[in-house]
């Protein structure tokens, strides 16, 4: 029998400071469903500002913390800070990531490290820290963010270092799911296709949206709300028998 969720529960989201990002949209969506919200962003002021807006809009408790999640000590300290201010940590969603449109033959050591450290190592450090608390409580939900770029070898905006790091997240999440399942913790990945956010290289024109949508089976590209809704399911109490999976939210761009 699985451990039930506490009456008051918190979801921590990383990378939630961007005004047009998936993380911010998900924070509001989860708060509307009653989750208390902890936000971690490299821009600490943006995290705090978003948290204040979430709390004011939906009447939940919310707090923000600044951290470069690629820095283990900073990532751990940020979770420590948020956990001290909010109800029991039940869910973690690791949105923090950086794009990389550099062609493979031009990728240097600095670019490789920058992309892998934030996207993959950052996901690992914050996941490990949050998982310690979840395992102690006997219940938890972890969501990592992969990408259709990992499944199709790029083909959107970002190229090789990004695709490699996002593929690594799938392996990380599956292994975490296997190890933490006995502790009542699930771990799943979401693999978005093209989503209308600034990580795609800035605000998308109608022409660029149409070109991206043409690869899929639907007539549009994704919105932050599409990913937020998928996240809400995977961290819900009802998703307690779903773990080690990758949920594609990509308009049919990659079918498997």
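^ structure tokens above, recovered residues below v
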């Amino acid at each position: 029998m699985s451990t039930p969720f506490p009456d008051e529960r918190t979801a921590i989201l990383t990378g939630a400071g961007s005004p047009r990002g998936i993380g911010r949209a998900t924070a509001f969506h989860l708060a509307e469903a009653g989750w208390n919200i902890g936000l971690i962003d490299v821009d600490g002021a943006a995290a705090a500002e978003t948290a204040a807006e979430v709390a004011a809009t939906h009447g939940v408790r919310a707090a923000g913390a600044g951290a470069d999640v690629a820095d283990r000590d900073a990532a751990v300290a940020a979770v420590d800070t948020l956990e001290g201010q909010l109800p029991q940590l039940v869910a973690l969603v690791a949105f923090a990531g950086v794009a990389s449109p550099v062609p493979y033959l031009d990728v240097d050591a600095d670019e490789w490290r920058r992309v892998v450290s934030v996207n993959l190592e950052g996901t690992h450090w914050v996941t490990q820290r949050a998982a310690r608390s979840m395992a102690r409580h006997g219940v938890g939900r972890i969501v990592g963010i992969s990408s259709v770029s990992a499944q199709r070898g790029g083909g959107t905006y970002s190229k090789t270092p990004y695709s490699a790091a996002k593929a690594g997240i799938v392996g990380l999440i599956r292994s975490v799911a296997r190890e933490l399942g006995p502790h009542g913790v699930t771990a799943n990945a979401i693999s978005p296709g093209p989503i209308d956010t600034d990580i795609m290289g800035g605000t998308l024109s109608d022409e660029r949206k149409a070109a991206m949508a043409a690869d899929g089976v639907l007539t549009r590209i994704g919105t932050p709300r599409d990913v937020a809704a998928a996240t809400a399911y995977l961290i819900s109490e009802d998703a307690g028998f779903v773990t080690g999976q990758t949920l594609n939210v990509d308009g049919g761009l990659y079918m498997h």
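Residues 109-137 form the longest helix (29 residues).
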